[in-house]
Amino acid sequence: MVWCTDRRIERTEELPQEFLNAWPGKRTLGLYRFLPLFFVLGAALEFSMINWQVGEVNFYNTFKKRRAEEIVESIENQGSYPFPPEVLAKLQKSVESKST
What we know:
Elements: H1 2-22, H2 26-29, H3 35-51, H4 59-78, H5 85-99
Helix pairs in contact: 4-5
């Protein structure tokens, strides 16, 4: 019975190597042949971060809210920020409306 489990272990160790060797372009591109795969995965991640929402929140809404809070906080602490007053007023209104 031991020989059976040993063969399974050998087979599972060979599977990733077989998959990597079966990927096309090994001779011409070498390790770089996986770049298109990672570009597609990165684009899918970015798409999901932009378009998938949980309730009314997605990644970019959260980021923009946090950034606006940081700007308002720095204005309150330092007294100024390199933005025109109209932009600052909009940012403050945005943070106040989101917090209520």
